[in-house]
Structure formats: structure tokens, C-alpha cells
Amino acid sequence: MDYDIRDIGLAEKGRLRAEWAEREMPVLRTIKERFAKEKPLEGIKLAGCLHITAETANLAHTLAAAGADLTLCASNPLSTQDDIAAHLVESGIPIFAIKDEDEKTYFDHMSATVDTGPQITMDDGADVVAMLHKDKTHLLKDVIGGMEETTTGVIRLKALHGEGKLAYPIVAVNDSQTKHMFDNRYGTGQSSLDGIIRATNLLITGKTVVTIGYGWCGKGFAMRAKGMGAHTIVCEVDPVKALEAVMDGHQVMSMDEACKLGDIFLTVTGGMKAVDGKHFENMKDGAVVANSGHFNIEINVKALEEMSEAKREVRDFVDEYTLEDGRKVFLLAQGRLINLGAAEGHPPSVMDMSFANQALAGEYIMKNHSKLDPGVYTLPEAVDTDIASIKLGAMGMSYDVLTKEQDVYLNSWEVGT
Amino acid sequence: MDYDIRDIGLAEKGRLRAEWAEREMPVLRTIKERFAKEKPLEGIKLAGCLHITAETANLAHTLAAAGADLTLCASNPLSTQDDIAAHLVESGIPIFAIKDEDEKTYFDHMSATVDTGPQITMDDGADVVAMLHKDKTHLLKDVIGGMEETTTGVIRLKALHGEGKLAYPIVAVNDSQTKHMFDNRYGTGQSSLDGIIRATNLLITGKTVVTIGYGWCGKGFAMRAKGMGAHTIVCEVDPVKALEAVMDGHQVMSMDEACKLGDIFLTVTGGMKAVDGKHFENMKDGAVVANSGHFNIEINVKALEEMSEAKREVRDFVDEYTLEDGRKVFLLAQGRLINLGAAEGHPPSVMDMSFANQALAGEYIMKNHSKLDPGVYTLPEAVDTDIASIKLGAMGMSYDVLTKEQDVYLNSWEVGT
Amino acid sequence: MDYDIRDIGLAEKGRLRAEWAEREMPVLRTIKERFAKEKPLEGIKLAGCLHITAETANLAHTLAAAGADLTLCASNPLSTQDDIAAHLVESGIPIFAIKDEDEKTYFDHMSATVDTGPQITMDDGADVVAMLHKDKTHLLKDVIGGMEETTTGVIRLKALHGEGKLAYPIVAVNDSQTKHMFDNRYGTGQSSLDGIIRATNLLITGKTVVTIGYGWCGKGFAMRAKGMGAHTIVCEVDPVKALEAVMDGHQVMSMDEACKLGDIFLTVTGGMKAVDGKHFENMKDGAVVANSGHFNIEINVKALEEMSEAKREVRDFVDEYTLEDGRKVFLLAQGRLINLGAAEGHPPSVMDMSFANQALAGEYIMKNHSKLDPGVYTLPEAVDTDIASIKLGAMGMSYDVLTKEQDVYLNSWEVGT
Amino acid sequence: MDYDIRDIGLAEKGRLRAEWAEREMPVLRTIKERFAKEKPLEGIKLAGCLHITAETANLAHTLAAAGADLTLCASNPLSTQDDIAAHLVESGIPIFAIKDEDEKTYFDHMSATVDTGPQITMDDGADVVAMLHKDKTHLLKDVIGGMEETTTGVIRLKALHGEGKLAYPIVAVNDSQTKHMFDNRYGTGQSSLDGIIRATNLLITGKTVVTIGYGWCGKGFAMRAKGMGAHTIVCEVDPVKALEAVMDGHQVMSMDEACKLGDIFLTVTGGMKAVDGKHFENMKDGAVVANSGHFNIEINVKALEEMSEAKREVRDFVDEYTLEDGRKVFLLAQGRLINLGAAEGHPPSVMDMSFANQALAGEYIMKNHSKLDPGVYTLPEAVDTDIASIKLGAMGMSYDVLTKEQDVYLNSWEVGT
After folding, report:
1. Which positions are annotated as binding NAD(+) (chains A, B, C, D) (predicted)?
2. For C187-341, CATH number?
3. Is the pLDDT of residue A417 over 70?
4. Where would you tag: which of B176, C2, C333, D172 has the fewest CB atoms within 10 A of its CB?
5. Nearest residue of chain B to residue D244 (CA atoms)
6. CATH second-level architecture of A8-179+346-394?
7. Is A313 helix (H, G, I), strand (E, B) or coil?
8. Does the beta carbon of D109 lie under 8 angstroms from any beta carbon of chain A?
């Protein structure tokens, strides 16, 4: 078995951490049990590019239990948990990922993974898909379908499909309600704050926290920052979302204004240069800047480098940039995902649902690929209902069921005031 | 001019209140100015069934400025503000609505309104549509289109259309983001709490508040009840929404359990019997029950009447029911909309957007009716963007605009990590 | 029996409302039952100056049950509930209070009450004490003690005592924890917001709400305004409290800055001119200003009158002032207590504890007056514990009791790490 | 120079972290500058027992700048940051502290520190005072005064003084408003949650979090747990505080009930056995238990050990105990302070004020010790005002100043309604 990880000796620690995460992943556990019996992915070659974390380990075990022959690489050079990588290799799953690997190694790892010649791809940002469609088109013929985890990835896939180039059907796992409404919001909310606090040990209350982007991730982060006592400002490009931010109790303004007021900035736009050179120019001395969107280009790090007279690391994950006039700006985790860089990523309880969708998407592709044209698909709503229902039960909570009379009423137009 | 209202002498008070509301309705004001010049509804007969409030007065003035010849009746027997009715009549707009009118008068008023033979209908719960399609089908031939305000109404329209019976195109105003995301959530949230407090003067903090239904209305109410210090419980039939409630910090359980714990109950399901006889049987002594969904059937008032040994009004809008074992249950506003019964309905600031959608929907129908088959339509997304943009500006807030480079990036699949 | 009220015909409505309030006042109910047996105030003449509300009615019944011969007048010209006044008179308790009475009548009423020659005084702002010490010193000889309800009143009493002039012992009911920590915070918080919403029907979320004064009342109001979605600013003169406001998640600045930003202002300083002429000059068009401190001088209404070109009432409790440059400022309830003017005052659940302290303070004075020099006294801590304990029990909540071992540990210095 | 630390090689990392913390400590910085000029502690021998953290390093530098000759040991075996210890030694300040030292080493370190023969003692839990009064009474004669940091310590000192045994005056730094209202509340609130999340990576929202003890620490923690979306339950022995918890929006019940419902438990009582054997017996499978009070006896770890069939460490700071029936309970940081064990302790921004009080208390003792009898003292209120004022200024915030007229009014009894 070919693989490339930091240290196989970390396997036992990784195993315990994966087990700990599994306690919080009842939905995925339920699916694993069924998959172990039904083997829906028997013999299927699967290449995945995901953050290599304790939660991903549980997804990997679930896919392996389903019979898949899978290989994984990291979707981000900073997010790999080396003990988990070791544990997976020890379990017989090849991993190509080392925390803090350089750019070249990162791409070599992805290349090695894609070169296994997968029938199904699994992405977190559409990187495998992009590599297949750009550099390894000869492998496309074996692929029957894929899964994509993130908002950013789905946008890229749609762009690719819009140009008529997407070669196979892909399930946008992100579009499941039980994914984006939970993982993106409550997961990003807590874990980004966690990452910022671990990196800086700053007191959040009394600080002005600027959230750039008010999609599901931004909503979650701004809500939790407020819950920790911050004065919250939101910047947005969509006026409807901007107005929602106002009504949720945040101040709303353009980044040109907000850049002067913030103590802590977080980008979650899915785009680029949300924090740009002109913003750094106007920041307060001591401003802290982090990213929890997908790529490290949300912050224009290059502009910051060029504007700065000096740079040094003052704490783990905290780089101090000294500007010409002496002001200091602190960049966290080099502008890469703060929640995976400085903390452990989303808690298992939300990844449970996201990865339940991943696992079921794999099964869905197996069952339906022959009927599906290339394109971006969403799992049927019943999958959401099932996942949420198992989750609630595992949390000891119950919900109501419509009586026949109530159901009829809801679908009638004649009954009135 | 034919009309039926309480007292024309209230007109001046109504005028002042409508003016006050208008201060908070900058979007509608902007539309009114344009309509006054362009006259998009010149000579069009319009029949509307809406809550007759200060905000509706401003919509009526906007439609009148557009040239429409409109007549209005109440969409709820309890929600009419008599001073506003007087003010509208004095402005030359016929109104058929008296606060606290009995069931018969209520239907007579609707009948009188429908009998004007409208070309466009405007509904808050699809009552005019239902009357036209059941009892007054001879008038259908003149109708070119309609607008519907509420979630409940849209469900009814889709049921009607599902049976192949809907005779003309209707714009589901409720489906605009600037409507349901704001009016239903922030409007219902504040105004329902307001109605409960005005009716009871109860201290909310320390109380267990049960929200039944976690759609937009339920989300808003539970959020604000929590904001006032309540311990919040949510009941839902959709497990995805139930799980969202959990993550928003509420306790979630079936109504069979919640009915034993609640101090205050609010129904916002859009359905029927969300609080039923079996729930009343298990309530604590002193429980308070109210409705902010659409119809008064969300609470099974008939069951409560039958279970009770005595009934008396102990405060305005508070009926005390004494059960056989001596426990008392308090029903607010007879189970009708608590925010319109005991308070003034949604604040003008949210109705501004809802009614901007109404006004623009009227214009949309005029322009497009010849191209539209019978069915339920949503306004184009650009309308949402425009409304939100005007609103933000009027609140003194700014938002960002994507640079060309950012825009290109967001629509590209090739750029990577 | 001598009295002066609006209309005795309102008595039945008042009785029902008092009964409704009593449901939420379990502590006072428990005390009333004991007082009815023990008659601790038998034959004592008591003169009270309180807001005449449904909650006060229950205090009055409790004192009457104790055997007191009491007379009440209003502590504020706007706060009297005429139906409650009628109900008390019908119960045999003389009342001198009419809602909206003019200044002269207000003082005549207080004079009539003081002229009954009380042995115990009961104040809400020290007005009876002030009248006795200024104008009616001949009556001082019969007085054995008094009770004071408010922060402002206690400050005045201490000033009077500081000058060596206070003639008898007074219990500062406000200093009980079960009074100021609850009534001032949670009571003022909810009821002031309630008053503002009833007066204006404004949507709170999206508004900038400025709280002036961050004592217990200010803390409560700012917390609830935030809970309703407002962007909250706090102004304070004590830097420790100002810092606490920051950490509680509010923005803090001087009123000179805040006056330019606020949409809604509330004064709760206990002092004067917290909103002054120079602030009105800088307010935004449409600013709303209200007071929930003690006296109407917290807002410099006179300055506003002088600066204005026009004034008119646009809604109940809303006066529109037009400044020279055309900007409009809206003053609520003439600058008098907004929660009692436009709403019903504190909910009964908090007044339960405040008035339990009042009732027990009366008993305390009877038992201890011969031992007490003139001065300001606080009830023993055990009274707080008892009141809180009864309250929790009535709400169905339980608390822990220290074991002997835990208690010993807490009082030891030798046990260590 | 005698000292005992982990590794002097960590000094540079410690220096950078101390510098980082200093950015957030403007008040202490201001004091250090003055002390460096005035040398108020010139030549004074000072023995301190504090958590050896980045914030403490800044206090140590301030005292050294004042001329003190100080030696420090750890106040908790788990809380030492080894890089900071190294940095301090390199700066010339002797440290006796190693993270995770065993009980014996811990006491040896304290002994070595006390044996320096201090004139001033500085405590975090009164351990140095206890050692001096129990085992090293011969050293008492040189001591002129001391400072104590915590609630628990102050209780112990008062017990010691109550027995007439306290030998010198001690300033209860904890009693300063700028200490307990901020450090205990906002510091403990954020840092305890931080510790729990770092140890477990659990999603807080959707969990039932039980706070045991509703003093300042408990208030802060429950508030922040709620802010992160938890369903919060509070257990208390003081009914007034219990009621305050209710009004702050928490559920309140006895620990006998709460132990069955909680997912996460935190003790902040300052006492012992707040979580006892009988509670472990009733916990849910998977319950997580942590302590953020002072000593590790708040949780009866011994009882848990005896009840368990197996124990293993499943993650750093997470011990899994398997009970006889198979249920698992997870104890964090061995029941020691979770915020210092698994995270970095209070953020510098709050320690700034706490340690400003410490530094000023040292100066106060120097100036006043000859006038002070043995006893427990509080710093003058003006110190609080100064500290808060500097802090606000450094945060860029302003506050109001009373005009002469306002001041006179506030101290007058004659001005009225």
C-alpha cells in the first residue's frame, strides 16, 4: 500500500480521537452499520480530497465498510491531523497528507490520489474535479460520478458545467439542507471563533468583530461572536443578505468603512480579496485578520506582504506584519482556514450530518449514475428528513407528526377563516 | 361611494397614524412617487382583502397614486383599525371593515368588495380567491391577475392550482425574499410578543414559552421570546426545522410533552389544531394560549369550550376557561391573530418591504398578464435586490459591490487553492 | 370616606385586573394570608404615594389585611390606572389619583393624603417625606417610620439625612436584593420597551437604541433592547459601569457622540438633563426620546420646547417637535415614565417581590421603630432569602442546600489545594 | 539565582507570548511606567503564588520595575506555562513551577518560595498565607502585608481572621469591582468554555450545559454557554442568586435533578463536592464534567474513581471513566481548573485590570501597612474608577461627566417631581 504521512507512530492517538468523534456521529454510525451489511460500494474505486480530521476518519470507515476501495488526500495544506492520517493508514486506507506540507507536496499528494483512477470522486472545493478536467482528462472515462462538500466547490462546478465541460454527474452535498444549514452555520460559527481564540487568546467581548460575507458561514460566525459579547459588524455584497444582517442585530456597512473600526476580521465570502490592500492601509494598530472561507485568497496576503516593512511569527498561527507607519496587523494561519489551522475544524456533531450526506450521495450515485447526465444534483428531500430524524432521536428529542386531518387541511384550498 | 366602517369621525386620528407609519416606509414612498408619475394601474379595478392597518393605508395610497380604483375589506374580523378605515374612506377609498364585526358582517363585507368586479385581486390568506372560485365564478372572466400576501394563502393557491382550478395568474408576494424573510420573521417575532404582553402584562423572563411551528414566523417569535429572557421550547413536524431549532438554542419536543411544561403557547403552523383538546387536558393551571398563524383554527377553541365549566373575560383579549378540575386556561384574542387583535400588527418598517412587493406585483401583473397562464408566480430576484437596496440606503447603511476581478473569480472553475 | 378618582363605575374592571395580577404574585399572597391572621399593622394609619396600578392594589389589600388604615395617592400624574383606583375605593381604601391630572391636582391629592396624619409613610420617590419635612412639619411627631421604593428616593433620603434633618427611620425597600436586582432590572427592561413599542409601534431590530445610565434599570433595558435585535449604545458617568456595559456587549460613548447616532433614546439616570438642549440639536431627524428614570426632568423638555417651531401630538403619547431646520424629534409621554404612561408598568411578577419587601418593611417598622434612630435602613438579608425561596417554589423551581460538610469547608482556612 | 523550571530554552517563545499579552494590558503598562520612575517597592522581598501565565509575566515585570525582589511559584500544578516560566527566569525573576508537576514538587516549590522570607505575600487561593500560618510561623514576623486574588482565597482569609489568627493585613484584590466584576465573570465565562472546547471539540449548541454555582464566575459561564447556543441549567444554594439565574433566562433546579439532564457540567462554587457520587450515578452516558472554581475538590473525583470499573485517557485532558453499568463519564483536566489546564487561562484584557489591582495593592500596603491592623482590606473606590477610566480610554471609548448642576441635583432632597 502506497501512502505518505507524517508518522505512523501517531496511529493509536488518532484512533482514540476518531473514536471520541464517533460518539457524536450517530447518523453516520447508523449508516455504517447498514453499509456493512449491504456493501453498496463493493469494489468501487473512490478518490477523496478532504480535510483529514477525526470526523473524516469516520466517513472513511463508513465508505470502507460499504466496500469502497478509497484513497484520500488533504484539501488544505494546513488542515491535516497527522495522528488521524496515521490511524487511517493503519486501518488500511491509503492517505497522502502531512500537516504544513508545502505547495508542491500538496499537489503531488493530490496527483497521487487522482492517479489511482477513481470511479467516484469526493471533493471539498472541487480540486480533484478541476485536476481531472484540466490535467488528467484521460482518467475521466472511468468516473461515474462524484460528490462535492462546499459552497465554493458547488459554485466552481456550476461554472464548469456552464461552460459545457463537466464530464460526469456530481452530487452537491452542500445543497442538502442538513449540510449547509448546519455545518456551514453552526459548525463554522463555533469553530472559527475557537480557532481565533486558540491562536490569540483574545477576549472577544468588548471587541469589534467584522464578518465579511453573510452567507450561512457568516451568519453562524456573527451570531456566535455576538453570543460571546462582541460588537458585530457585517459587510455584504447582496443587499437582501445585508438587510437580514441588520435585522439579526448586526451593524452593516461597506468594508471601506468597517476596515477602520474592526479589532478582528473574518472573511467568509467564498470569493477573493475580501480584505484588500486598501483595507489594510486603514486598519487600526493591532487589527487581527483571519479567513474561514474556502481559499486563502479571500485575504490579499500578497498586498500585505508588499506593504509591510517587517514580518515575524509572534505566536503559533499569528504573524505580525509591521506597516510603514509602525502600525501592526496580525494575520492568522497565513490566511488559510482558521478553524482547521489553529483549531480542530467543525465539531463532529455537525460533520455527522454533512458526512451522512456524503455517504448517502455515494450510494445514490451507484444506484443512479446510469440515468444521470453530467450536471450538479441535489439529494432528494427525503434524505434530509431521514438524517434529521435520526439525529434528533439520538439527541433524545422528539417531534410531531401531522394527523391525517391536519395533513388534508394543509393541502386544501376550500376551508377558510 | 359605498362603504361600511365604524365612525368617519376617527379619520383625523387615522390620518396621523398613517403618516407616522409612512415615516418608516421609505421603499413604498419611493414607489408611490414613481407610480404617481407613471400611473401603471390607471383605471384598473382592484379588490383587496387585507388587515386594515396604518401600513395598509400607505399601500392603498400607493395603489391609488398608480391610478387604481380600489376597494378594501378586512382579512380578519379582529384586525381592523377603525381610525384607519375612516381615514381611507375620507381619502376616497371605499372600505368595508369594522373591528370586532361578527362572522356574518365579515363575509358580507368581503362579498361587497368582491362584487365590485375586480380586474386584480389582492389577498391575505386567499379568501377573495376562494370566494371567487366557489361562489362568484361569474366574476372570474374580468380578472387578469392577483397578489397573495401570506404563506398560508400560497399553500391554498397551490392546492387550488394542483386541482387544475385556478383561473388566473397570481403573484405569491410571500415568496419574495424581502417579504417572508423579514415580515414573517422579524415582524411576527416582535408583534406577537407585543400582542401577548399588551393582553396580559406578563413578565416574559422566567416563563417557559412554547412556539408551535418553526417556519419563518416561529423562528422570529422564538428568537425574540428568548431575547426577552424566556426559556424557549419549539414543536415541529419537519425534523430538519426541528433540528435547526435545537441549534438555535431552543429545546425541542413533541407538543404532547411540551403542553405540560409551557406557561405561554403560540401557534404559527399555518395548519389546524396545533393545540388540541388533549393538550389543554395536560396544561398547567394558568397556561396562556395564543395564535399568530393565519386562521383561528390553529387552536381547537371548540374543544376548549366543550371541556370548560366556565368562561369569562378577565382582561381585554383574555378569556379565562375553567376546566372541570379547576385549572384555568387563558385564551388570547379568541384564538385569532394576537399581534393584530391585541397589538397593532407588524411594525411599518417590515410592512414597507412586504407592501413594496405588493405594489410592484400589481405593476408586474399589468405588464405581463397577457403572457401568464393561470398559476402561482414569484417576482424576479432583481425586485428583491432593489427593495433591499433602497431600504438599506434609507436606514443609512451601505454595502459592498463586487469588483470585476471578484466577480470573474466567483464564476470561474479554474482558479484554485 | 373621602376620595377623588375618575369614575367609580370602572371598579369591576379594576377588580378583574387586580385579580389577574395577583395570580403572578405568590409571595405577596403568602404574606397577605399570614397578615390576615396576625394583624401586625392593626389600627396603624398609613399614607402611601405609589403608582396606582393593579400590582399596588394587591399591596394595598395586603396592608389592609394586616389591619392598616391606609390612604393612597399617585406618585406620578400619568401612571394612575383609573379602574384600579375605582376598585380600591370600592374595597374601602381611599384613593386620591386620576390619570392625567394636572400639576395642581397632583399636589392637592398628595396633600390630602399626607393630611390624614400617618404613622407610617410609604413613598416612591420620597415625595411624601419631602412634603412632611418641608411644608407639614407639624405632622412629623406622629410618624414612627416609613418605607421608600426607589433608587432616586433613597438618594434623596440620604441627602436629607446627611443634612441632619431626617426625622424618622425609613426602610430603603429598594436596597433589598429581591427589589433592585429584579424590579429595576427585569421589570424596567421589559416594561420600558413595552411602553416604547405601544407608543410608537416601531420595529426595534435595526434601530440604534441609546440607554443613558447603566444602573440596574439601564442594564435591564439595554439587555432587552439587544434581545429584540437593536444595536445598543450606552452612556454612563461611572467608568466602572461603562466598562461593564462594554463587556455586556454594548457600545459605549459619551452622549455628545451618541446623540448623533441614536434612533431611540431612553434615560434611566435618576438625575437631570441627561438629554439636554445640545443633544437635541444634534439628533437625527425622527429621533424618539423617552424616560424611564424617576422624574420627567431627566429630559430637558423645556429646552426642547424653546428650540421648536411647532409641536403636535401625532399618536397617543407621541409629541412631535419640529426644530428650526425642519428636523423632527418625538418625545414620548411628555418625558414622564414611559412604562407607566404608555404601558402598564412593571409586570406583577417582579412587583410581587418589591411589594413583599414593602409589606415586610411595614411589619419591621412596627416591631423595631422604638429601637431605631432616624436614618435609612435595609431589611435583614434573611428577608431576601425568604422572598426568593417562596418565589422559586411558586415557579416550580428548586435549589440546593449545602451539606454540613460543604458548609464547614466553605468556612475553613486550613483545607487546601 | 535559584529556580526550578522545565526548560530555559523556551524563554524566547515565552517572551513573545508575554509581549503579545502586554498589547492587551494598557492599564498595567501605564502603572509599570510610573512604577519604573517612582520605585514604590524598592528592595521589598515579595513571594507570590500565582498561575504562571503570560499575563502574570507582565505583573511580575511591573513589580520588578517597582523595585521589588520577587520570587514566584505556581498556584496550581496544571496551570504553569513553561515558556513563560523560562522567560521570567531569563529576565532575572526566580520561578519555581513546572507544568504537570506532582503534588510533592508542587509543595516543595511553594516551600522554596515562602522560604525566601517575604515582606509581602501575593496569593491566588491563600496557599502561601496558609503555609505561613501553619508550618512556617517563624517567618511571619517579617511580613508587612499581602494581596489575595480570588473569591475562594478571600473566604479562607476571613475564616482565618475570624478565628483571630491572621497575622498581617491583606488586601482582597478580588473585592475590587474592576477585579471580580470582570475577571470572574467575563474572564471565566470565555476561558472555561474555551478550555472545554479545546479539550473535547464538542459542539456547544444543542447541548444541555449545567453551571453549578451562580456567583460572578457562574454568571459569566452560563451567559457565554447560552451565547454559543446551549440550553443552560443553573444549580445554586442561594435562592436570590437562583432567582437571578431564572430571570437571566436559565432553567434552575437542584443538582439532584440536573445531574440527569446535563451533557456538560461545570463547577464554579468555591466549595467542595458540588458534583458528588450520587450525581455521577444518575448522569447520562457520555456526560462531560469540568471544574473552573478554585480547587479540584469541587468534583468528588475520589468517588468517581471508586465507582468506576475502568479509566483511560481518550484525548489530552479527557479521562474516560466506565461505570459498572457501562455508562461512561468524561472528566476534564482531572477536575482541576479547565481554563488553565486545557486553555491559556483568562485573556490578558481582563487580567490587565485584576493585575493592575494587584500592583496597586502592593503600593497601598507599602504606604499604609504601619496604620493597618491584621485583617482583610479592600482598595479605595477611586482605584476602581482610575483603572476603569484608563481601560476605557485605551479601548477608544468615552464616558460622560456630571455637570455641576447635575451633581448638585443628585445630592439634593428638596427638588421634586
Report:
1. 150-152, 184, 213-220, 236, 292-294, 339, 346
2. 3.40.50.720
3. no
4. C2
5. B206
6. 3-Layer(aba) Sandwich (3.40)
7. strand
8. no
